[in-house]
Amino acid sequence: MSRNLAPVTLGSPTFTRRDAGSLQVTEALFPPRAELPLHAHKRPILAVILDGSWDEVIAGRVHQCLPGYVQVEPAEERHTNRFHDAGARVLVVEPDPARADLFGPCARFLERAACFEDWGVAALARRVATEISNPDDLSGLAIEGPTLELLAQAARRGRARDRRGEAPPWFHRVRDRLHAEFRRAPSLAQLADTAGVHPMHLTRVFRHLTGMSIGTYVRRLRLDWSAEQLTSVDASLAEIALRSGFADQSHFTRSFRRYTGLTPRLYRAARNGRLSS
Q1: Nearest CA-CA partner of 23 in 155, 119, 117, 142
Q2: Within a domain: residue 2?
Q3: How many domains does the chain have?
Q4: 253 and 156, same structural domain?
Q5: What pLDDT does 198 receive?
Q6: Helix 249-260 to helix 214-232 angle, to the nearest 10 degrees?
């Protein structure tokens, strides 16, 4: 099983790595339509998709990894990756298995391949990525704390998912519609029609499976989309706010700051500063 071991940056021409105590944390960019051959990593991996998407084949299953998703790759578990048209930006956490005091509580969670959505973990990952882009003498501490919190929250959500079991087929139809139409979100009645279930049942099951309401889910889709727009298009904050579905720029700014820890203006400056360096 030790064959084909590769760094987490395999296939990434642009990446930044930081050592943070018991962890190695890497922000990596992968080009559009890149395909990675069968490989494995020495340490267990927890990856959080910040932008873009890919398909991964691991442990006999195909996982579609989308923005806001958490991907778990056990140590020496071989897998392949195929990135979609937009490529991907990902935060990769490599905990040190020798640190039993920190790694131990999450060890079982990291022993099985998994892929699931968790916007709380994604928000923490964005904070860490911003810190990686703008390092100073306190960056080690500033990165390690949120990353440990990220790892703990992902492990808790993984345990909760194991207890909940598989989502019903209609849930995936509703989720796909929300991802396609989040800027002009469908009504609850329209979503219930898509699912073929009563609206009350829809809202209860949706919260049970995602840990949040449909409204919060849509808001986070808008925030992730707007975060990508801030670094990829030359549009004003007001334009991005309206295009992403927010009522006005002030509402967008308040929501974005709660989500990422930065205002949209500071987020854009931080991200563009990294890309131009």
Answers
A1: 142
A2: no
A3: 2
A4: no
A5: 95
A6: 100
